[in-house]
Amino acid sequence: MLFILRRFVLLLPLLLGITFITFMLTRALPGDPVFNIVGERSSPEVIEKIRREIGADQGVLRQYGGYVALLSQGELGRSLFTNRNVADDIRVKFPNTLRLAVASMLIAAPLGVLLGFISARRKGRPADRMITLLSVSGISLPVFWSGLLLMLFFSLRLRLLPPSGTGGLPYLILPALTLSLPAIATLVRVTRVTVIDLLDTPFIRTARAKGVSEAAISLVHILKNALIPVITVIGLEFGSYLNGAVLTETIFGWDGIGRYAMEGIIKRDYPVIMGCLLIGTLVFVLMNLIVDIIYHYADPRVRLHGTDR
To answer: What is the pTM of this model?
Structure first.
C-alpha cells in the first residue's frame, strides 16, 4: 500500500516536469499557429489581435504559468482552431481509442503467447523457424505499411471490410489487427525465450522424473511461470495503445486520441498537443502501476516495496 501511495505522490512532479518540457518543445516547433488561424496575408492588426487573444504576445515562462494555473482548475484549455474545450474532445475520443486498444490486445495477447509457446516447444524445427520469421517480420514492418496492405487486400480487393471510418465491429477489425501485429511479434519473442529458459530449470526436470505428463508440465509449470514476464509486455503495450496509436488511427480514419493529437501537431494547436500528451503520460504511469500490482500477485516473490529500488 505504501508503494502505491508513493507512486501517486510522485505523479504530480512527474506531470509538471512533462508539461514543462512539452510546453517548451511545442513553442520551439517551426511555424506559427496564428498564421494557421488567420492566414499569412492577414493585416498586422488582425495578427496582433489574435496573438493577444491566445496569449502568444507574452513570454514563454509567463504562458507556461498561465497554463499551470489552468491545469490547477481542472481545465486543459481550448483548441485554437475550433474553440472547443480540449477536455471535452478527449472525453469523446478516448472511448474510441479504448475500444481499439482492447480489441488489439484481445488479438495480440492469446495469439502471441500461443505462438511463442509453440515456437519454444518446437525449437530448431520448421515450425519454430516459421514463427520466428513471422515475428521478425511483424516487428520490422512499419505499421503504416502493414495497415495499407491489409486495407488493400480486405477492403479494395475482397471488399469485405470498410477501409476507414469509426463505427461498429466491421470498422474496428482492420485497425485492431494492424495495431496488434507488433505486439504479437514482441509477445512471441518474449514467450519463446522465457519458455526455453524454463525448460532447462531443475523443477521441470524433477516433474518429468516424477512421471508428470508433458501436458501438465506445459500448462501448470511452464505456461504459468512464463506468463509472469509476459504481463509486463502486455501492460506496456496496452498503455501505449491507450496513449493513442497515431499512425493506425490516422491511416484508418479512426476518431481517437492518436488522430486528434496528429491533427493538433499539424495545425500547431498547442492546447490539443499539451492535453493529449498530459493524458497520455497519466495513462502510461497508471498502467505501469497496475502492471506492478498484477506482477506482485502473479509472483509472490516480488514485493511492492522493493520494485522501485
So the answer is: 0.81
